[in-house]
Amino acid sequence: MIGIQRGYNGLLNGECFEMNLRSVSNIISAGGTILYTARCLEFKTKEGQDRGAAKCRELGIDALVVIGGDGSYRGARELAHRGIPMIGLPGTIDNDIACTEYTIGYDTAMNTALEMIDKLRDTTQSHDRCSVVEVMGRNAGYIALNVAIASGAMAVLLPEKEFDMQRDILDKIAETQKTGKRHFIIIVAEGVGHAQEIANEIQARTGIDSRATILGHVQRGGSPTLRDRVNASAMGMSMTSPSTLPTVIQSPTEKGLSSRMTMPENRLLALSCAASEMVRPMRPAPATMLPMGKPTSCAPAATPSAMTSTL
Fold it and tell me: Which of 133, 297, 304 is nearest to 214 (CA)?
């Protein structure tokens, strides 16, 4: 097993080392990645992708295991189209990868956000304030929706659902005040943003002291939860079994060779590099759903999903 550091940037620059049982021991409780990660603008170009495929062949790689989110999967798709066998392990806190119920890091991020909100509630209640809390989730509101329910927030704003300031926030505050409650928590997904502007408007129109808190990258670190450790271990075990290695099938198209993969039926995680096999649209998270896993529809967003990348 070869470990490639700093993603596709490390692949192009040959930053790799041999991994064994000792090199990965005692990392199950650590956050982040021992392989590091980095963005690689060169890999967005055809020349960079060609060089990446050539480097895989130079290193004698039988299959490339990519761990990451949609950007990593787009890069993996390009390598697969160049005949490199790929295995994808979904690793993103947003839980927004098609064809999988769960992504590594999602549960840890939710629990981290919830812990911060619980601490924030103490001062919010003490000072009769309204706290507008922004959590991560650029195009998917799974973190926001779940932590809003778990924290007893008054309202949650999701990128999948349009909101009206008067109806969804101000009217709810007024109705809740009639019950005697004087403090409020509103969760805002990163994809909605503008937490400070929302807090300013609430204070201007209600007179309630309102503060914005952006949790930011604290959600991407910390010791993984039990659920993340178990799911990541199960995915890793499935990936390392020889019977689960993918087979690349190439077929001619108008634009040249198109590569797709076939996976044995017993794979825990099977993601296809062929956009044509992803035919159902991914549904957004409805307000009534608790996406601890998410809808199992198997479709790409703007571009076909294939694999991932903290290589």
Answer: 133
* 3-state SS, one letter per residue, for 255-285: CEEEEEEECCCCCCCCCCCCHHHCCCCCCCC
Residue that the structure tokens 């064994």 belong to: 20
Catalytic residue check, 209: no
H runs (alpha helix) in 215-265:
226-240
By C-alpha distance, which of 59, 69, 63, 68 is closest to 86?
63
Collapsing DSSP to helix, strand or coil, 71 comes out as: helix
Q: pLDDT (tens digit, 9 = 90+) per residue, 175-208?
A: 999 999 999 999 999 999 899 999 999 999 999 9
Q: Which of 70, 94, 96, 228 is labelled catalytic?
A: 94
Cβ partners under 8 Å of residue 260, min gap 6:
80, 248, 249, 251, 272, 273, 274, 276, 277
User: Taking the mean position of all CA atoms in its chain, how far away is CA 266?
Assistant: 25
